[in-house]
Design goal:
Blueprint: H1 2-27, E1 43-48, E2 51-56, H2 59-74, E3 80-83, E4 87-92, H3 102-114, E5 117-129, E6 132-136, H4 139-150, E7 159-165, E8 174-180, H5 181-192, H6 198-210, E9 224-230, E10 234-242, H7 249-257, E11 259-267, H8 274-280, H9 285-291, E12 307-315, E13 319-331, E14 336-344, E15 348-352, E16 357-368, E17 371-384, E18 390-396, E19 409-412, E20 415-416, E21 427-428, E22 431-434, E23 440-442, E24 447-454, E25 460-465, E26 471-480, E27 487-488, E28 493-497, E29 507-514, E30 517-519
Parallel strand pairs: 14-18
Antiparallel strand pairs: 1-2, 1-4, 3-5, 5-6, 5-10, 7-8, 9-13, 11-12, 13-16, 15-18, 16-17, 19-22, 20-21, 22-29, 23-28, 24-25, 24-27, 25-26, 26-28, 26-29, 29-30
Helix pairs in contact: 2-3, 4-7
């Protein structure tokens, strides 16, 4: 009995040993546990942005999980998500240990990345119009923005805006193209229809050549919009931008279509004055002078052909268009001039008064925004002819007038004044320059001396008659150097200044007479 008991004890111990060995052996075949080998680090703790997210058996697995987590964060949209991600692995060698599956590690990584999203960049479109730029969220918004500029002219919605690649640029830059819907349909038809060749092409040309030319009637013209195009350079590029960098479509339309003050060059034409140019461009004369360094003040002279800076209201994106219009109008015939070589250019005489005519017109008119830039008359029918104005005009250049002395100080202007001394006039018929006795006095213009000598209140005086019928007078002289009947040239010395006659001090008195009456000399001096 004792022997039997010992036997059973040995059998029980053996079974326990076999069971333990079986458990140990099975460990090597259970998923999720690593083999017991001495091969260096074989288990790694993955740390993402300072947080442990799981255990893996190699770096490659960790990198695959991070790649998948980033893909999940990016989603299926077109946004570009910027995330701070710093992954570290802490390795160690173990005989056995538990590792996490990829799905678990990836899920934990997504949770960490969601807390570390730095910025979401939206796929956007940057529109550049000359120097102006605006960022929009989609291509549809870009097209709506561009359409907003042409819709006020394309009232029948006959034109479409397209974005096409700019062939002149190396990078992918889009530009615009405006086509009427009829043109688009014609292009599509051309791709489907075969061109005539051989004998058929020759017959087409022959029939085109013999078709008689027929003058169009007014009713034959199709009135309305002929063409539309943008008047400014447009570039569109794709970009990824933050939400705060995008402009709403409504604000963008407001910015692009509202009028801005833009500087332009205006060329002076006949009949212009500074006040007229300022008025026509909604400017004050002070503002016009301020904008142009070449203009000293509001009284500055301007000449035909001068270029002046003016401001013109224009939107950021201008639209150029052509329209065919029918209208009836009164019109003036061009003035007919008859030249007279014996007259000066200042002399004119109207030989025939004008009378307006009336006509019917079909014209193609070009515009930039609201401003007309050109007009071509396609058909004209005169109801009754205009009578032209006929003007006889002189061709000779009239004489010029210069200041009769060098230097001097202007002491008395033309017109009413207080009597400076007993015997002097209260209405000054010339101008006075104070100057020392003996200053050279010169002929203001070429002519013939009419009087030279004593002239009562004038003291010593010289009168000169000029070819244009005017007369100049020089008074209060100390010495006369010419005599009556003598011909003098412009700038020739004719006398010396003095203080003779009714005078309050050394000076030169100067007059210009037209048709026997004194005028303000300052208006006629060059």
């Amino acid at each position: 009995m004792i022997k039997l008991t010992k036997y059973y004890k040995r059998m029980k111990i053996r079974k326990i040993k076999v069971a333990v060995l079986a458990v140990i052996v099975s460990i090597f075949f259970i998923p999720g546990y690593i083999k017991i080998e001495s091969t260096g680090d074989n288990m790694f703790t993955v740390i993402l942005n300072g947080e442990a997210v799981g255990e893996v058996n190699d770096r490659k697995t960790a990198e695959e999980c991070l790649k998948q987590a980033r893909k999940i964060m990016a989603g299926d949209g077109e946004e570009l998500v910027l995330i701070d991600s710093n992954m570290e692995l802490e390795g160690r060698e173990v005989f056995w240990g538990h590792i996490d599956d990829k799905e678990t590690v990836t899920g934990r990584m997504v949770q960490v990345l969601q807390k570390n999203v730095k910025q979401t960049l939206h796929r956007s479109y940057t529109v550049k119009i000359n120097e102006y730029t605006v960022n929009l969220s989609s291509k549809d918004e870009v097209l709506e923005l561009l359409h907003s500029s042409i819709d006020k002219y394309d009232t029948e919605n006959a034109y479409d805006v397209e974005l096409v690649l700019d062939p002149t640029r190396e990078l992918n830059v889009l530009t615009t193209n405006i086509l009427s819907k009829e043109e688009k349909e014609a292009e599509e038809e051309e791709q489907e229809v075969f061109a005539s060749v051989g004998i058929y092409a020759a017959l087409d040309e022959m029939f085109d050549a013999v078709e008689p030319a027929k003058e169009k009637e007014f009713s034959d013209y199709e009135l309305g919009l002929v063409s539309l195009e943008f008047g400014d350079e447009i570039e569109v590029v794709e970009s990824y931008l933050a939400e705060e960098e995008l402009t709403s479509l409504e604000d963008a339309i407001q910015e692009v279509t509202k009028d801005q003050e833009k500087n332009q060059i205006y060329e002076v034409v006949s009949g212009d004055s500074l006040s007229k140019i300022a008025l026509e461009n909604d400017l004050t004369i002070e503002k016009l002078v301020e904008m142009n360094e070449s203009i000293e003040n509001e009284n500055s002279m301007i000449r035909v052909g001068d270029e002046i800076i003016v401001t013109v209201p224009e939107p950021e994106l201008s639209v150029e268009r052509r329209e065919t219009l029918y209208y009836e109008e009164d019109y003036e015939a061009e003035v007919i001039y008859v030249d007279n070589d014996d007259w000066y250019t200042t002399d004119m005489k109207t030989l025939q008064e004008p009378s307006a005519g009336h006509r019917k017109v079909v014209a193609e008119v070009s515009y930039r925004d609201r401003a007309e830039t050109g007009r071509e008359i396609l058909k004209e029918e005169v109801t009754y002819e205009a009578v032209p104005k006929i003007v006889e005009r002189g061709t000779k250049i009239p004489p010029t007038y210069i200041k009769p002395i060098s230097g001097g100080r202007l002491t008395s202007n033309f017109g009413r004044r207080s009597r400076p001394t007993k015997g002097a006039s209260t209405y000054h018929k010339g101008i006075d320059w104070a100057t020392p006795v003996g200053t050279a006095v010169m002929a203001s213009s070429a002519g013939t001396v009419a009087k030279a000598g004593w002239g009562s209140g004038y003291g010593y005086v010289v009168y000169i008659n000029h070819a244009d019928g005017r007369q100049t007078r020089y008074g209060h002289l100390s010495k006369v150097l010419v005599s009556p009947g003598q011909t003098v040239s412009q700038g020739q010395k004719i006398a010396l200044s003095g203080n003779t006659g009714v005078s309050t001090g050394p000076h030169v008195h100067f007059e210009i007479l037209i048709n026997g009456s004194q005028v303000n000399p300052l208006k006629y001096l060059n």
